[in-house]
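Q: Hi! First time doing this. I have a protein sequence and I read that you can turn it into a structure. Is that right? Here it is:
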Amino acid sequence: MTASTAVRGPILGTAALLAFLTLVVACGGAPDVGVLNWYVNPDNGGQARLAARCSAASGGRYRLRVLELPRDATSQREQLVRRLAARDASIDLMNLDPPFAPELAAAGFLRPFTDGEARELASGALKAPLEAATWRGKLVAVPLWANTQLLWYRRSVARRAGLDLDAAPVTWAQLVDAAERTGTTVEVQGKRYEGYMVWITALVASAGGSVLEDPAAGKDARPGLDSPAGRAAAAVIRRVATSRAADPALATADEESARAAFQGPRGGFMVNWPYVYGAARDAAAKGTLDAAVLADIGWARYPQVHPGRPSRPPLGGIGLAIGAFSRRAALAVEAARCLSSLESEIAYMIDAKVPVARGAAYDDPRVRAIFPMADLIRGAVDDAAPRPRTPYYVDVSAATVRTFHPPAAVTPDRTPGDAARLIVEVLHDRVLL
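A: Yes, that's right. Below is the predicted 3D structure, encoded as structure tokens:
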């Protein structure tokens, strides 16, 4: 998630182009075939292959054309907002990060699903991604991917530290102590970007609070950071950032730099998305990662802030939404039904090695062969904490991350209150970020 923030036109990836050309040939360019534009975040080509399968299964009723958005979530949102604000009818289907759905729905940019459509499309979806795809009682995006973070650890390091992560949940304080005892690091995402907001939100939620107390109130939402939960979250950030377990590059660390350090000689513990395990397996298969490192990687539930209080892992993923100005909305619903079916989600989870939103997908033996931690991921997704569900999420996130950065400068007695005040100032247009 580290691409330029410049707003560009959609990019048709190579895999998507090949799939599209194949479909054109197969369909003979028939004029009665409805072309549906599906704007996606870049992946390994799995979405293009899924589009090809659904297009073929439609019997010629529609043909999905896959168009790539920029690589990072912020730039994806910028492009979609600008085009939809211009009432762009070419956006039939689009992938949305969960935090951006309220903004686009409140602006009238998304076509809500009817109650009948929602009952069918939401059936079997895990709780947290389904709630994140709903705005003011209406389903505005079909849960497609459903991501969350786990605690990843080096088994050898945990043994040396005397931690049995299979026996009981671990707290952040225990992790830092264990890393300091073993001369290893606790890898997190501390760069001033969306990934840092993910960490802050999960810490506050795990401490029993929320970044916003009433996010649906829009500009009048009340920040929840200046609270015991907000101060507990700040204490964790400061402890990690100022400890001997901190990566020297913590203030610029994103998912990939954290993964690289975790796999390195000082790697001990890390919070990150499940893709890291598939990436390690692929690297070991190619010989670019020592097989012993792969065998040493373990996984556990996201760390607790307070002992005995279950953690609230962060919620990520992708929702599939229909553009409000699409001229082929009925066909787009039909395509969404195919793309989000249990069969399609299982196929995509196997192909792209990304967790999905339907709980039953995790029971498939082929999925479990790729994700030996499937049950842990499913439970973490179901319990996950969303980032603030507000139409003003971009402002709330920017104000929070700005105040909490750099991590080593965070103080529990000051930072949460400063962040809460800045959020109010930004929401009421008294401060520009």
